[in-house]
Structure formats: C-alpha cells, structure tokens
C-alpha cells in the first residue's frame, strides 16, 4: 500500500484473504486506520519529485 503498486483488492487476492472487507478489518485492527485513511495520509506526506526543489529554502 505504501508504494501504490497494487490496490486493496489485488492485495487481498495475493494474500489469500477471503474478501477485501476481511483484509480491511484486519488492517484496521492492527494499525488503527482503514486502508483508505492510510493511503490518504501517505499521499499527503509524499511530494512529487518535481516539487522537491521548490521546498528547499532559497539563498
């Protein structure tokens, strides 16, 4: 989920969960966050590489 290569349905399938809901419930039980909330937090923290130079203080 961190890298965004697979969506939650693909992750559930690859991990042999019986359903997306089951994976989501397990994820929330362990992390305290729903998968969608986790993804929102990750997306807010990540800056596109094009913007990194703009974040640096200018002399």
Structure description:
By secondary structure, the protein is an all-alpha fold. It has a single domain, classed as Orthogonal Bundle (Arc Repressor Mutant, subunit A), CATH 1.10.10.60. The protein is built from 4 helices and no strands. Helix 1 packs across helix 2 (20-31). It is elongated and about 45 Å long.
Name its key features.
4 helices; 63% helix; Arc Repressor Mutant, subunit A; 0% strand; single chain; 59 residues; mainly alpha
Layout of strands and helices, then pairs:
Blueprint: H1 8-14, H2 20-31, H3 35-45, H4 49-55
Helix pairs in contact: 1-2
Give the radius of gyration: 16 Å
Q: Which architecture name does CATH use?
A: Orthogonal Bundle
In percent, how much strand structure appears in the residues? under 5%
CATH top level is Mainly Alpha
Task: Give the distance, in angstroms, between the N- and C-terminal Cα atoms.
Answer: 37 Å
| SSE order | HHHH
* Approximate helicity band: 55-70%
Label the structural class. mainly alpha
Whole-number count of domains? 1
Summarize the structure.
The protein is mostly helical and 59 residues long. The chain has helices spanning 8-14, 20-31, 35-45, 49-55. It is elongated, with a radius of gyration of 16 Å.
